[in-house]
Amino acid sequence: MFEYLGDRLSKAIKNIRGMGKITEENISDAMREIRLALLEADVNYQVVKEFVATVKEKALGLDVGKSLKPDELFIKLVKDELVSLLGSDYVPLTVNNGTTILMLCGLQGSGKTTTAGKLANLLRKKHNKKPLLVACDVYRPAAIEQLQEIGKSLNIPVFTKGKIKPTVIIKEALEYAKENNLDYIIIDTAGRLQIDEALMDELKEISSEIKIDETILVIDAMMGQDAINVITGFNNALNLTGTILTKLDGNTKGGVALSVRHLTNIPIKFVGDSEKMDGLREFYPEAMAERILDMGDILGIADKVEGLMSEEEAKDQMAKMKKGNYDLNDFLQNLKQIKKLGPLENILKMLPGARKMGLNNISIDQKEILHVEAIVSSMTLYERRHPEVLKASRKQRIAKGSGRSVEEVNRLLKQFEAMKDMMKKVSNGNMKLPF
Questions:
Q1: Which residues, including other chains, have CB under 8 Å from residue 284's CB and lie 6 or more apart?
Q2: β-pairing, 131-136 with 184-189?
Q3: Is-contact 237 189, C-beta < 8 A?
Q4: What stretches of 112-172 adopt beta strand conformation (E)?
Q5: pLDDT per residue over 317-370, tens digit each?
Q6: What does 14-82 look like in DSSP terms, one character per residue?
Q7: 262 or 324: whose pLDDT is higher?
Q8: H or E stretch covering 270
Q9: What is the pLDDT of residue 357?
């Protein structure tokens, strides 16, 4: 997501790189490119106009000292303005000590029902809540069954009373939740192909009869600038507390994310970045701006890695890296953990400087990871701890045991030693990363 926009912005910023000072001429050239990049990424015209004017004005007013590079100052300025555009601060979801009631609304096809499941899964994992999914889409064929299937796959209860009045369903669901100690109620409401009076009247009735803590609009990021009209329409009727942008892993240019907060003042609380039930991420404006500018998404990586390794294990590995004691046994353990994260190329894209290093277009065959795992697994525990003992006869045995070639064993050992050396330098602060 945002790769297209990020590539274009990176090219625009190159006009400033290496220049001894910031002038109106070189800033104008860069801002022309940035304006085009934003417009082509489907960012609202008014937002682009204000953004370009603000950045240009601030850039020309920069006081560049001898120790500061103009290009670095300019990039920081662009990043800060992107953060401001995206909402500046992270706005967390309401999570009460007692019961919390959240209503999801949106147009048909926006991904409400799937998002309800993802949200329930996240609340259970991250906040230790006991969610209840409430099926109130009583019009769309198979909507109730879809939510029930999602609930079953996650082992999360789903409350349904069939196709009766939604307010009645919700009131009975609240009683059910109280009896069963369920403390986070997620209401999946009906959608329409477009905003209409019947849809809004039903949602307004729910809001007037039930004390809702969060009213979240689920919106398809691929809608483009039409999304602003949809958000405004729902907000005028319901007083939205936030939005969730779905399908950011699809063929979207990401412009809607840069327009939503600035034009509606409604925070983006989550983004959906995969079809899997763990594919919902909290929205941090600074992390998103850094991702766009190829500064990486360390928060995103940390979010994916969370739960795979305990804090004690992480500290232990860091200590080993500093001492240069990181061995093939640690490597094998990390390899197994990495496999749980999904496609490795998706993680590489989140590293700082990924586009610059060409990692955003890399494709990794999962079989290669299995081959490496097979080679290391064919070594004895002693060999993994002391790879220096691996001479010709041992390598032949390992190759035979793993079904790979001696050349592959040699290549793995060479790559491991290079990685180990780099890790030691980075952890000791003796090596500057390429970003």
A1: 90, 299
A2: parallel
A3: no
A4: 131-136, 158-159
A5: 666 666 667 788 887 877 777 666 666 656 666 565 555 555 555 556 677 788
A6: HTTTT-SS--HHHHHHHHHHHHHHHHHTT--HHHHHHHHHHHHHHHHT----TTS-HHHHHHHHHHHHH
A7: 262
A8: strand 268-272
A9: 54
**What one-character DSSP code corresponds to residue 249?**
T
Distances (CA, A) of 155 to 124, 126, 130, 158, 363: 11, 16, 11, 9, 34
Side-chain-facing half-sphere of 366: CA atoms under 13 Å:
8
pLDDT for the residue 67: 47
Helices (H), 357-433: 366-377, 381-385, 392-402, 406-427
Q: Are 166 and 202 in contact (CB under 8 A)?
A: yes
Whole-structure pTM value: 0.71
- Calpha distance 261→248 (Å, rounded): 16
- Angstrom CA distances, 309 to 121, 262, 315, 316, 406, stand at 20, 38, 10, 11, 32
Q: Measured between alpha carbons, how far is 205 from 167 in angstroms, rounded to an integer?
A: 8
Question: If DSSP codes are grouped into helix, strand and coil, which group holds residue 299?
Answer: helix
Q: pLDDT tens digit string along 396-431?
A: 999 999 999 999 999 888 888 877 776 666 555 554
Type of residue found at 193: L
Model confidence band, residue 392 (pLDDT cutoffs 50, 70, 90)? very high
Strand partners, 306: 309
Instruction: Look up residue 294 and give its two tokens.
Output: 């190829």
* Segments of 211-267 assigned E as strands: 214-220, 242-246
Check whether 435 has a pLDDT greater than 50.
no
Q: Report d(CA 276, CA 152) in Å as an integer.
A: 15
Q: Which residues contact 19 (CB under 8 A, 6 or more apart)?
A: 26, 70, 71
Domains of the chain: 3-86 (1.20.120.140), 100-290 (3.40.50.300), 304-427 (1.10.260.30)
Contacts of 351 (CB under 8 A, 6+ apart): 296, 301, 357, 359
Sign of CA dihedral 396, 398, 403, 405: negative
| 100-105 vs 184-189, strand pairing mode | parallel
